Amino acid sequence: MGSNSNVWRWLIVSGLFCCIIRSNAQGTPDTASLLWQKSLRGTALRIDRLDQLYVVNQANELVKFNLAGEEQARYNQNRMGPIGLVDPFDPFSVVVYYPEFQVVQVLDRTLNLQWSLDFNRLDLLDITTVGASNDKNIWAIDRISNRLLKFNPAGKILTESPAFTLLSKTIPNFTSIQASGSLVYAFEPGKGFWVFDQFGQFVKPLSLPGITHYQLFDNQILYYNTTSWQLYDLQAHLTTPVNLPTPKTVFSFALTGKKWILLHSETLLCFLLPSQF
């Protein structure tokens, strides 16, 4: 992308991270002004391309909000253990993964169940992470075979990668998978990504030492490397520092446009970023 405005438009960062925030009702140039807040205990926050928020609350429910903080839908499935992952890559087919039971559920835009996939029934007992594909299927990492697999809703394997042991001397510990265009990015904290094509064939490693949190969008990756934010251009292979507030306290958050949404302690907050962002 060619501008920071596009960066903020598609930026979605979710996970444990931290920032200093100084709330100011007037929105002075060097502060973020609080737009709204609501009492909510949560464990995870995500945002989709339509600027809809997804929060996993303390009751293990998935709750969907609009950008004004108004609840739109709610999904409750407490028979499969804690929600381990939510991927709203497609707002009309939201992927929810329950790792303790090795079950993927795919929800429609109103958070009603569309279909589910039980890896146990496929004799796959150690699927560590999953992600939505760009064709409404599911990518998954199988730790036993050490492969990236792609499944259709019926559980048929559509494609698979070579064994990771053939690609590296050490077995990677991938914690998330994200599709972007015709490529698939498997993320390993502290190291970076393995990049695969849409057929599951290994393309290249992408080393970003120290990376802890990231968002992949278009041709760039915004990431945090334990000390600062960096913007990596996937075409130019250049890294540029990004000026964001200094880390201090742990949050889960998302950014879109100039709105900064934080899930902190027992509160969901939305801030308007200062003009320099």
Describe this structure as you would to a colleague.
By secondary structure, this protein is mostly beta strands. The chain has a single domain, classed as TolB, C-terminal domain (Neuraminidase). The protein has one helix at residues 4-10, and strands at 17-18, 33-39, 42-47, 53-57, 61-65, 71-76, 85-90, 93-98, 103-107, 113-118, 127-132, 138-142, 147-151, 157-160, 176-180, 183-188, 192-197, 202-207, 213-217, 220-224, 229-233, 238-242, 250-256, 259-264, 267-272. A 5-stranded antiparallel β-sheet has the order 1-23-24-25-2. Strands 3-4-5-6 form a 4-stranded antiparallel β-sheet, with no helix packed on it. The protein has a 4-stranded antiparallel β-sheet with strand order 7-8-9-10, with no helix packed on it. It starts with a helix and ends in a 5-residue tail after the last strand. Residues 1-29 have low confidence and may be disordered.
Outline of this structure?
The chain has 277 residues and is mostly beta strands. The protein is 3% helix and 49% strand.
What is the CATH topology assignment? Neuraminidase
Question: Would you report the number of β strands?
Answer: 25
The ordered H/E elements are HEEEEEEEEEEEEEEEEEEEEEEEEE
CATH top level class name: Mainly Beta
Largest sheet: 5 strands, antiparallel
Secondary-structure-based class equals: mainly beta
Helicity, as a percent range: under 10%
How would you state the average pLDDT, rounded? 85
- Span between N and C termini? 16 Å
Radius of gyration over C-alpha positions, nearest whole angstrom: 19 Å
Strand arrangement in the largest pleated sheet: 1-23-24-25-2
* Count of helical stretches: 1
CATH superfamily: TolB, C-terminal domain
From the spread of the alpha carbons, the general shape counts as globular
Tell me which CATH architecture applies here: 6 Propeller
